C-alpha cells in the first residue's frame, strides 16, 4: 500500500472531522449508519476484529484491516486507537482506491 497517499488522506479526514476514533465512537458511528468505512489496525485484538466485522456486516459498512499498527494510527491521526471509521463517502471511496491500487 502506498502509505504516503493513504496516510495523508487519513490525516486530512481527521482534520475535516470525518473520523470516529476508538471503540465507542466507531461503534456508535456504525450503528447510526454514519460510517461508510471501518479501518482496523493489524495488531488489534481478535475479539475487536470479530466484533467490528460482524457489526459492519450487519450495517453494510465496508470493513478492512489495514497494514498499520495502533502506534502508526496514533502518529497519523493524533489519537491512539485500534479502530476508526470514516464518516464521509468521498473520503471512503478515495481511501479504497488508494488501497486497491497498492495491495
Structure, briefly:
By secondary structure, the chain is of the alpha+beta class. Helices cover 55% and strands 17% of the residues.
Average pLDDT, all residues: 92
Which percent range describes the beta-strand content? Answer: 15-25%
* Contiguous runs where pLDDT drops below 50 for at least 5 residues: none
Which strand order does the major sheet show? Answer: 1-4-2-3
Note the overall shape. Answer: globular
Order of helical and strand elements: HEHEHEHEH
What features would you describe in this structure?
The chain has 103 residues and is of the alpha+beta class. It has a single domain (3-101), classed as 60s Ribosomal Protein L30, Chain: A. The chain has helices at residues 3-15, 23-31, 46-59, 70-77, 89-101; strands at residues 19-21, 37-41, 62-66, 83-86. The chain has a 4-stranded mixed β-sheet. Helix 3 (46-59) links the parallel strand 2 (37-41) and strand 3 (62-66). Helix 1 (3-15) packs antiparallel against helix 5 (89-101) and helix 2 packs parallel to helix 3 (46-59). The longest helix has 14 residues, at 46-59.
